[in-house]
C-alpha cells in the first residue's frame, strides 16, 4: 500500500514525503518514574521510542513491535515518528527526557544530529540504545541493535550477480562472463548504514568491475556519486532518468542490472525505467535489488519488476532492543555479539548484529509467509 502510493506520488512528480508521511503519533503512558530510582525500582519505567518516519512500512513495524514487546514486559512507552524531519526528532527526544523516560530507543534520521539530546539524556541518567542506525559523533550511546549491515551489502551484490546469471542460486559461478552493464545506487550519507551497505556490496562488485565482468557505463562508482540523500525515491528516480538519458539512450548499450540498497529507491528506479520506455517482463528489463521486504516490493518481486530484496525481521530486532532495554533497566549487561565494527567517532558501541536474508521469488513463501511475517493475503 505504501509503495503503491509512493509510485503514484512519483508519477505525479509529487513530494511524496510530504504527501505520505503521517504525523507523529504519541502513544503510551507519559508518567515520570523519578530520575533517581534504584535499578530495582525501574519496573514499569517509561521508555521513549523514536522512529524516523511512517513512509516506510518497516519503521511502522519496528515501532509497533518495540512498543508491543515493551508493554508486554510491563513498561510504559512513548512512541514517536518524526516525519523524516531532524528537528522534529530532536524535539521528540527532548520531550521523552522531560517526561522521565529511563531508556531511549532511537532509530535516527541523521545519526550525527542528536548530540545535544544524547548529552541531555546522559545528564538525566537516561540510557540510550541505537536502533538499526548508529548514532554517531557522541559518546553517550550505550548499546546498538541492528542487522549485519556489511552483510546486507554483500547479499545485495550477490543477488545482483545471481539475477544477471554470473552466479547460480547456490552462489556458484555459472561460467558466464558477461560483460554486464550495471548502475549502482547507495543510501543517504547521513545514515551510517549506507556506507556499510555500500562497502559490503563493493567488496563483491569491485573486483568484477576491475576485471571488466561488470561495466558501470556512467563511470559512477564512488559513494558520493551514487548516494541518495534522505533515501528519497524521487531523487533516485531523477538520477535513474539522468543515467538512462546520458548512458543508455543510443540503444547500443543494454542496461542489465541496478544495485539498489532499499526498496523505496527501487521504486524510483522502476518508475524511471517505465517512463523511459522499459516494459516489465520484457527481455531487456534489468535486474533490480532492494531492501526491507516491504509488501509492495514483495509483490513487485512476484510480478517480476524487482528481482530481490533483503528481509530484516523487525520482530527479531525489536526483541533484541527490548532485551537490551530490560537489561540496562535492571542494571545487567545486555548480550552483544560485536564489539569492534561500530565505531561512532567517539567510541566503539557494543552491538548485537542480526542476520539479514535475501528474498527472491524463489523463497518469499518460506521466508515471509511460512515465518508468519506476512499472510498470503498481504501479498495478493
Ligand atoms: C535501514 C534500511 C532501510 C533504509 C531506508 C537504513 O538505515 O537499515 O533497512 O532500507 O535505512 O529507510
Describe what you observe in this structure.
The chain has 380 residues and is of the alpha/beta class. The chain is 40% helix and 13% strand. The protein contains 13 helices and twelve strands. It has helices at 2-11, 16-20, 57-72, 86-98, 115-123, 149-164, 192-210, 223-226, 233-247, 263-275, 295-303, 314-330, 364-369; strands spanning 46-51, 76-81, 103-106, 127-131, 143-147, 180-184, 214-216, 257-259, 287-288, 309-311, 351-354, 357-359. Strands 2-1-3-4-5-11 form a six-stranded parallel β-sheet, sandwiched between helices. 50% of the residues are buried. Residues 1-5 and 7-40 have low confidence and may be disordered. The structure holds beta-D-glucopyranose.
Give the spatial strand order of the biggest sheet. 2-1-3-4-5-11
Tell me, briefly, the overall form.
Answer: elongated
What's the CATH topology name of the largest domain?
Rossmann fold
- In CATH, what is the class of the largest domain? Alpha Beta
Tell me which oligomeric state these chains represent: single chain
Helix content: 40-55%
The SSE order reads HHEHEHEHEEHEHEHHEHEHEHEEH
- Main sheet characteristics: 6 strands, parallel
Share of β-strand residues: 5-15%
Q: C-alpha Rg, in Å?
A: 21 Å
Overall pLDDT: 91
Please work out how many helical segments DSSP would assign: 13
Structure summary, number of beta strands = 12
Domain unit count? 2
- List ligands, each type once: beta-D-glucopyranose
The CATH architecture category of the largest domain equals 3-Layer(aba) Sandwich
Classified in CATH, the superfamily of the largest domain is Response regulator
**Which parts are unreliable, with pLDDT below 50 for 5 consecutive residues or more?**
1-5, 7-40
How far the N terminus sits from the C terminus, by CA atoms, comes to 11 Å
Which structural category fits the helices and strands? alpha/beta
Amino acid at each position: 500500500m505504501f509503495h503503491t502510493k509512493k509510485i503514484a506520488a512519483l508519477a505525479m512528480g509529487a513530494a511524496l514525503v510530504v504527501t505520505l508521511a503521517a504525523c507523529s503519533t504519541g502513544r503510551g503512558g507519559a508518567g515520570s518514574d523519578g530520575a533517581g530510582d534504584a535499578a530495582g525500582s525501574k519496573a514499569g519505567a517509561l521508555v521513549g521510542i523514536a522512529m524516523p518516519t511512517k513512509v516506510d512500512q518497516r519503521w511502522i513495524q519496528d515501532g509497533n513491535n518495540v512498543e508491543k514487546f515493551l508493554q508486554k514486559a510491563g513498561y510504559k512507552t512513548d512512541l514517536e515518528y518524526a516525519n523524516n524531519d531532524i528537528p522534529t526528532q530532536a524535539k521528540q527526544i527532548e520531550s521523552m527526557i522531560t517526561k522521565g523516560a529511563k531508556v531511549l530507543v532511537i532509530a535516527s534520521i541523521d545519526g550525527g544530529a542528536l548530540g545535544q539530546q544524547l548529552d541531555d539524556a546522559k545528564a538525566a541518567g537516561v540510557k540510550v540504545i541505537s536502533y538499526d542506525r548508529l548514532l554517531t559523533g557522541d559518546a553517550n550511546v550505550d548499546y546498538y541493535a541492528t542487522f549485519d549491515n556489511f552483510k546486507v551489502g554483500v547479499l545485495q551484490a550477490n543477488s545482483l550477480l545471481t539475477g544477471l546469471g554470473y552466479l547460480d542460486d547456490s552462489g556458484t559461478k555459472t561460467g558466464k562472463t558477461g560483460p554486464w552493464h550495471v548502475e549502482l545506487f547507495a543510501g543517504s550519507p547521513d545514515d551510517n548504514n549506507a556506507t556499510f551497505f555500500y562497502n559490503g556490496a563493493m567488496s563483491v562488485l569491485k573486483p568484477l568491475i576491475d576485471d571488466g565482468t561488470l561495466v558501470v557505463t556512467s563511470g559512477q562508482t564512488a559513494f558520493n556519486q551514487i548516494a541518495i540523500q534522505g533515501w528519497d525515491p524521487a531523487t533516485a528516480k531523477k538520477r535513474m532518468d539522468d543515467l538512462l538519458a546520458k548512458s543508455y539512450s543510443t540503444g547500443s548499450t543494454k542496461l542489465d542490472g541496478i544495485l539498489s540498497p532499499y526498496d523505496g529507491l527501487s521504486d524510483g528506479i522502476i518508475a524511471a525505467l517505465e517512463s523511459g520506455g522499459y516494459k516489465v517482463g520484457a527481455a531487456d528489463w534489468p535486474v533490480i535489488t532492494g531492501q526491507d521486504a516491504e509488501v509492495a516490493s514483495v509483490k513487485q518481486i512476484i510480478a517480476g519488476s524487482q528481482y530481490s530484496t533483503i528481509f530484516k525481521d523487525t520482530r527479531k530486532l525489536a526483541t533484541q532492543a527490548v532485551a537490551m532495554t530490560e537489561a540496562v533497566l535492571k542494571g545487567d549487561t545486555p548480550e552483544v555479539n560485536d564489539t569492534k565494527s561500530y565505531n561512532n567517532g567517539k567510541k566503539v558501541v557494543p552491538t548485537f548484529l542480526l542476520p539479514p536474508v535475501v528474498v527472491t521469488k524463489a523463497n518469499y513463501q518460506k521466508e515471509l509467509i511460512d515465518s508468519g511475517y506476512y499472510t498470503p493475503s498481504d501479498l495478493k
